[in-house]
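tool_call: predict_structure(chain=1)
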Amino acid sequence: MTDSAKSRPTDAERFLIVRMGSMGDVVHTLPAVAALRDSFPAARIDWLIDRRWRVLLEGNPDISGILSFDRKSLGEVMACIGALRRADYPCAIDFQSLYKSALMAFFSGAPKRVGFDRHYAREAGAALLYTQRVSPRGAHKVEHNLSLVESVGAKARAVRFPLARAAEAEAWVSRELESRGLREYFVLCPGGGWRSKCWPAERFGELHQELARKHGWSGVVSFGPGEEPLAEEVRRAAGKSNPAIFPMTLPQLIVVLRRAKFVVAGDTGPLHLAVALGTPVVGLYGPTDPARNGPYTKTDVVVRNAKPDQTTYHRGGEYSLAMLSISVPQALAAIERRLGVK
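tool_result:
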């Protein structure tokens, strides 16, 4: 099922935002949409997103409507296209730069379709479907996304990441933490979309041991669908320090990350979500460049040993040498530096 946009205003700008996934990419798009809202306060701004990630947008004051669908369902895709056509958007902005996202912008019928140029787009041919192609400025993904809205007249003031609070998730997390005696905790995130961006589970376990031994801190291991064995591997490696492991929905993960003392993760969605929530972060980076994909803050700390020729965005299925080069003492020192403790 597709959530149709509400009736359109007659006296305001109307924009369709296309960014269907994934977690970190959606988070990195939030400041651009915030800048669009600040620049066009009366505008209708609707966001097209995969239903899996819809919760990241719910309650966002910068968005007028959310159109969500399951892209694996042909019926839902066709229903969504119908809703887009009926909304009659003058302008669609595609932040994803893939064939699937560019086609949705094209099928919306928007006469103005804005996206990245072929040199930057993840799938170069997608740029052929845009009427306005943008060469991004800056180093970071947040800045690249801001370039798209600036091309339609928006001006970025302060970068912000609106993420609403869900009362039901807050209550659930409070009960879960209380049942485990966790008042103060940190979060370890061993998972990731590409194995080459991940740090081995046994090292996360060793890091938990060291944090417990040296500082008396307790941790929570977060994991996504299908990552339960990975989380259990971290717990086994942590030994008697025994980090907490429990499944969480995305709204519950947001609460857990927001309340955490700090978060340690690779270049993954939970890391970018934690940054957006204002939680202290230590990022462990290997093949991807933190200048482009790292924490968008000046206070958070990144550990990276990779040589320039090891930088790649190829989705490797094995641990990369760059990630394997990061030691547990390096990660521990980075955490202590971020928190200002010894």
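agent: The longest strand covers residues 44-50. Proceeding to next step.
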